[in-house]
C-alpha cells in the first residue's frame, strides 16, 4: 500500500471528541388524548425512565484512525524534500481526495489505492485488511496518471503531489 504524508494544515476532523452519554427526558405534548395523559401523569413508565442513550464517535474502519498530516515542525523540511522529487500535478478533485485521505476520513487507507485495493473495491465493495478483517469501501480512491507522468516518475520511490501553481500538497511514497 502506498503511503502519503500531507502538508495540509490540521483542521477539525473525525478525531474530535464528543460527550459520551446523555440523559433522556420525556416531555408529553399537551394535545395527547386524555387516556394517554392520565396513564403517564406520574411520568414515563419505569422502563422508559431507565433508558440511557449513549452517543460518541464510532471506531474508524480498520480500528485505527489514519491521519497523514505532517506536524508543523517538520512541514518546511517536507516541503523542501517535495521540491527535489519528481512531481505530479493534481486536479482540484485529486486535491480534495488528498484532503480526505490526509484527515483520516478514508481510514484505513494510508494513501491512494493500489491495483489490488482498487479491484477489491470494484468487485466486492470492501477491502480485506492484513489481519483478515473486512472494511466497507465502496468508492475507489485512486490517483490516475498518464504515460508522460509515469515516465517522469521513472523508478523513483517517492513523488511530490503539487497543485496547479506547483505548490507541494503531499509526498506519495512507495
TrEMBL record:
According to the lineage, what is the superkingdom? Eukaryota
User: Keywords in UniProt for this one?
Assistant: ATP-binding, Nucleotide-binding, Transferase
Which InterPro entries does the UniProt record give? ATP-Sase_PUA-like_dom, PUA-like_sf
Q: Name one GO biological process term.
A: sulfate assimilation
Residues in a coiled coil are none
Report the GO molecular function annotations.
adenylylsulfate kinase activity; ATP binding
Question: Does Nucleotide-binding show up as a keyword for this record?
Answer: yes
Q: Where is the ATP-sulfurylase PUA-like domain?
A: 58-173
| Pathway(s) of this molecule | Sulfur metabolism
Entry's PANTHER family? Answer: BIFUNCTIONAL 3'-PHOSPHOADENOSINE 5'-PHOSPHOSULFATE SYNTHASE, SULFATE ADENYLYLTRANSFERASE
Q: What is the name listed in the Swiss-Prot or TrEMBL entry for this protein?
A: ATP-sulfurylase PUA-like domain-containing protein
Amino acid at each position: 500500500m502506498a503511503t502519503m504524508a500531507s502538508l495540509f494544515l490540521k483542521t477539525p476532523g473525525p478525531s474530535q471528541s464528543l460527550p459520551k452519554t446523555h440523559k433522556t427526558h420525556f416531555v408529553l405534548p399537551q394535545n395527547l388524548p386524555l387516556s394517554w395523559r392520565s396513564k403517564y401523569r406520574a411520568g414515563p413508565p419505569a422502563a422508559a425512565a431507565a433508558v440511557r442513550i449513549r452517543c460518541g464517535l464510532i471506531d474508524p474502519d480498520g480500528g485505527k484512525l489514519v491521519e497523514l498530516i505532517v506536524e508543523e515542525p517538520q512541514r518546511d523540511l517536507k516541503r523542501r524534500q517535495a521540491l527535489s522529487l519528481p512531481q505530479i500535478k493534481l486536479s482540484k478533485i485529486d486535491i480534495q481526495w488528498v484532503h480526505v485521505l490526509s484527515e483520516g476520513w478514508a481510514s484505513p487507507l494510508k494513501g491512494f489505492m493500489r491495483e489490488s485495493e482498487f479491484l477489491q473495491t470494484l468487485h466486492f465493495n470492501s477491502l480485506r485488511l492484513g489481519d483478515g478483517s473486512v472494511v466497507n469501501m465502496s468508492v475507489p480512491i485512486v490517483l490516475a496518471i498518464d504515460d508522460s507522468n509515469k515516465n517522469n516518475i521513472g523508478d523513483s520511490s517517492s513523488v511530490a503531489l503539487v497543485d496547479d501553481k506547483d505548490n507541494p500538497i503531499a509526498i506519495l511514497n512507495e
